Amino acid sequence: MGNTMTNDDTERINSPQQGDTGTDTDTPFDPAVDMPMYREGMDWFVLRVASNKESHVRETLMRKVEIEGLSHLVGRIMVPTEKVKTLKGGKHKVTETKLYPGYVFVEMKLEDDGRIPQDVFFLIKETTGVGDFVGTAGRPTPMAPHEVEKMLFDSRRPEETPTVKMEFEKGDHVTINEGPFENYEGTVDEVLPDKGIVRVLVTIFGRQAPVELQYWQISRADEQ
């Protein structure tokens, strides 16, 4: 079977844009966790889709598969996401971020010759926003086991408590907006994303001193 997966495709699949998410043992049934990585006769394939249409494509395909009674040929359809909390304009915002923009992962059974079953092919291709599968024309290339394992790991249900997206890096020039050092300017010395803390070097009485601040207490100096 030919493999036309490009370096760009492989890079984006193996290196998601955001970090991995955690699990919550109290959540309901989760197909990424509570089902085996592979099911008999099925493989995982990568479907290219229009940007920002990932969830729409997934929901549409799942509905069509159920209506057409093709669940024996098409199984899970995944769009890995992560909840992220950011601060912009002084306001907290929680967004659910796609980890693999432009891709949907489909569990599917192919014909013996490696082609997509005709009914499945038309069901998928007639869905708005769908491009092509990664692979040769009509013969998609199955994902490698390590790719499937990582994709399913990233597809776990996002935690209710979103991760904090740190928008600062060491060396950034920042202004302190709250606390005893309000209106002071300083330089980011260290970022502690697990705690949501940024350590800033501030000049006090002619000497630099480290000050630990919550990430939302500061902003980049050039944004003032």
Question: Please, could you describe this protein's structure?
Answer:
By secondary structure, this protein is α+β, with helices and mostly antiparallel strands. The protein has 2 domains: 7-164, Alpha-Beta Plaits; 173-223, SH3 type barrels (Roll). The chain is 18% helix and 33% strand. The protein has helices spanning 7-14, 54-68, 118-125, 145-154; strands spanning 43-49, 74-78, 81-88, 91-98, 103-108, 130-133, 135-136, 139-140, 163-164, 173-176, 185-192, 197-204, 207-214, 218-220. Strands 13-12-11-10-14 form a 5-stranded antiparallel sheet, with no helix packed on it. A 4-stranded antiparallel sheet has the order 2-5-1-6, with helices on both faces. The N and C termini lie far apart (57 Å). The model is unreliable at 1-5 and 15-25 (pLDDT under 50).
Give a brief outline of the structure:
The chain is α+β, with helices and mostly antiparallel strands and 224 residues long. The chain has helices spanning 7-14, 54-68, 118-125, 145-154; strands at residues 43-49, 74-78, 81-88, 91-98, 103-108, 130-133, 135-136, 139-140, 163-164, 173-176, 185-192, 197-204, 207-214, 218-220.
